[in-house]
Design goal:
Elements: H1 2-8, H2 11-39, H3 42-56
Length: 57
């Protein structure tokens, strides 16, 4: 059954979907990280390293 379905899908389409399956989550992660780098207030940047030190100690 799956061979019948995969036989009708062009190979280039499968490759495109594989690339998009990797590219879309990575781009979402990168954009989100960049937005936080540019948009987080200074007090939030200072708070994050201090809270990780308190948890370790």
């Amino acid at each position: 059954m799956i061979e019948l379905v995969l036989g009708r899908i062009p190979p280039g389409f499968i490759q495109l979907c594989a690339v998009l399956a990797l590219l879309i989550p990575w781009l979402t992660y990168w954009v989100n990280r960049r937005i936080h780098e540019l948009g987080d207030p200074p007090w939030m940047m200072e708070e994050l390293p201090q809270s990780s030190e308190e948890e370790d100690g």
